[in-house]
Amino acid sequence: MMKKFLSFLICAVLFASLAFAEKITFTAGSMSGQAGDSSSTTVLSDGAYIQTSSIEISAQNIELSGDDYRFIKASGGISGKNLETNMEFTCDYMSYDRQTKIALLQGNVSLIDEENDVKANAQVIEYNQDTNIAVLQIGINLTQKKNVCTGAYAVYQKNEQLLEISGNAQVKQEEDVFRAQQITLNLETQKITLSGNVKGSVTESAKTEEAPATEAAAEEDSAQEQALEEQTEQPDGEE
Hints:
The chain has 239 residues and is an alpha+beta fold. The protein is 18% helix and 51% strand.
């Protein structure tokens, strides 16, 4: 009961302090700091939740600091969502600048763009909410439709549906594999561009492999039919 009352009190104080700025709402099991001073550092613990006009974050701990709580840091079991584009994410640690709308996600990061069926995993992802561009680093694995993309560094442009990968870049499309120093993939048209030490392997489909055999069989059947017709048309007594 005391925790619920404390959460309500914290929210009420913050609403008052941010009456002429972006509204921030949150709940937490406990708090330390001066809730009435928007220039001080406030720490929410024991299961915290925070929501601004464009993002929501749940974590074990959340820290607010800077003028008008400009900076947000979170740690422990983080999950969040961009309320404007429905991009969802999970990670171990994150920092977020409410003014630039840039989020830095670190540690077992997962970024999901359900609208475009894109799922990205990396150790570090920097996501700009204004441009909808995500920069992925270390242990990258991005999947979309039949594409499995890996590399050391990548830039995902949500609006343009473009993915640029470098550093042991590889795109696997079912049995087909493409490798290069840099790969650009249009996730909408599936057009792929490779540059620098290009390698790859392409496997023909079973349908393509069977086509020549089927065509040859048809030609053989046609020849047999023609020979039979010629034999039938020969005059009696001729061999």
